Amino acid sequence: MTSSSLRVKGLTKRYGDFVALAPTSLDVAKGEFLTLLGPSGSGKTTLLSLIAGLAHPDEGQILVDDSDVTRSPAYDRDIGVVFQNYALFPHMTVEDNIAFPLKMRKIADADARRRTAEALETVRLPYVAKRYPRELSGGQQQRIALARCIVYRPAIILMDEPLGALDKKLRDQMQLEIKRIHRELRTTIIYVTHDQEEAMTMSDRICLMNAGAIEQLGSPEDLYFRPQSVFVADFLGESNLLSATVRQVDAQGLDIVLADQTAPSRAVGNGARFTAGEPIKLMVRPQNLHVGDAASGKLTGRLVDVMISGSMTRLYIAPEKADMPHLVAAYPTRSSAAPYEIGQLVSLGWNSADAVAIRDGRGH
Amino acid sequence: MALAKAPAVESGQLRSVIRSRSRSQAWTWVAMGGPLVLLLVFFLVYPVGQLLVLSITNDSAFTLAPYRQLFASSVYVDVLLITLKISLVTTLVCIVTGYPIAYLISVVGKERKATLLFWVLLSFWTSFLVRAFAWIVLLGRNGVINKLLISLGIISSPASLLYNFGSVLVGMVNALLPLAVLTMLSVMENIDRNLPRAAATLGARPGMAFWKIYFPLSLPGVAAAGIMVFVTAIGFFIVPALLGGRRETMITQLIIDQVQQTLNWGFAGAISVLLLLVVLIVFAAYDRLLGLSTMTGASAPRTAATSRLSSPIQKAGDALLTLLGVISDRIILLSPSRRRDRNPDQAGLGLQAFVWTMLIIISAPTLLMIPLSFGTGGLNWPPQGFTLHWYETVLHSPVWTQAFLRSLLVGLGTGALAMLIGTPAAFLLVRSNIPAKAAWLAFILSPIVVPRMIIAVGLFYVFASMGLVGSAFGLILGHTVVAVPYVVMTMMAVLRNYDTRLDHAAQSLGARPFATLRHITFPILGAGMFSSFLFAFATSFDELTIALFATGGLNATLPKQFWDEVTLQVSPVIAAVSTCLFIFMGLLIFVAERLRRRAGAR
Question: Which one of A28, A48, A283, B59 has the minimum C-beta count within 10 Å?
Answer without folding.
Answer: B59
